[in-house]
Automatic annotation (TrEMBL), chains A, B:
InterPro entries: Tscrpt_reg_Rrf2, WH-like_DNA-bd_sf, WH_DNA-bd_sf
A GO cellular component entry from the record: cytosol
One Pfam family named in its UniProt record: Rrf2
GO molecular function: DNA-binding transcription factor activity
Highest taxon in the source lineage: Bacteria
Protein name as annotated: Rrf2 family transcriptional regulator
Length: 147, 147
DNA sequence: AATCATGTAACATTAGATGTATCATGAATG
DNA sequence: CATTCATGATACATCTAATGTTACATGATT
């Protein structure tokens, strides 16, 4: 399988939406993400179900933020797109009676659990609002930080 | 893509080999792993190239350890099987001029790098010898630990 | 009514691990 | 030396989940 880029893409979109007046169409977002409007709708459906964005049909329709960026963490977005597997490595599912296999799998899963906890904690600690303000500070230049 | 289980499988095999007299055939190993001898040869080729195991053809041939388990870390095995991607999430490869996209990707990659460093450190800190002794202590029962 | 935009379903594509079949090569055995 | 056993290597099939694509239905605006 390819590397899952839904979290990355949705963060990208949400930050743009916050800097954009009025709704954005799936087509415009697809162009931004270099993909297809159907992929956009499919992925953003999760964000809508979670209440982070709204979608409207018809003229002047499209996608708009439904809450403050400070109320959304990276973890929220990760979960809203389906909370996919974080790791590409692991062990076979099947039940086993082999004690060596069990020991090995437990050792690996311990390490993976720890790394996952770290990632989840980091994702949960950062809000999209902080990311957006980081953007202003990092990229908008000295004018933006003058008093 | 499926979850990569080569590390798990090779650890399983190496620990068995240490508890086994004489070489083990790809067929026997494949049965142990519930897979196919060709898959075994393909995966173990990396371990052989790294010098952790030896393979012999013909009657009485098969696979045997080529060094002490204490000289092999989980990280060594991970690298010997190709050092595959650890994470199933990430971002699109393509170059971009969008500063928002760059900021988002850097934020995610920072977190992933940190988690990867944790995993690599843990894998590097555990030798197969320690794992094997952990097995004896955990599963072999009180008889094994008597003086 | 026409247009615009999302919602949805169905199917194609892609990438990488894994599974499988086949034959070549070399070692041990009689 | 022929047979058997085992690895080495190649080619191709399968599986899985994300992603890409086509087509059409639904609802809102003009």
């Amino acid at each position: 399988m390819r590397r899952d880029s839904r979290l990355s893409r949705m963060l990208h979109v949400l930050l743009h939406m916050a800097r954009h007046d009025g709704p954005m169409t799936s087509d415009a977002i697809a162009t931004m993400l270099r993909t297809n409007p159907v992929v956009v709708r499919r992925t953003m459906a999760g964000l809508r179900d979670a209440g982070y964005v709204r979608s409207e049909k018809g003229h002047g329709g499209g996608w708009a933020l439904a809450c403050d960026l400070d109320a959304i963490s990276l973890l929220d977005v990760h979960r809203a797109v389906g909370g996919p597997q974080l790791f590409a490595i692991g062990n076979e599912a099947g039940p086993t009676h082999c004690l060596v296999e069990k020991l090995v799998n437990e050792a690996l899963e311990d390490a993976l659990r720890e790394a996952e906890a770290l990632l989840i904690a980091r994702f949960g600690a950062v809000s999209l609002g902080e990311l957006a303000r980081g953007f202003d500070a990092d990229y908008a230049g000295p004018l933006a930080s003058s008093p």
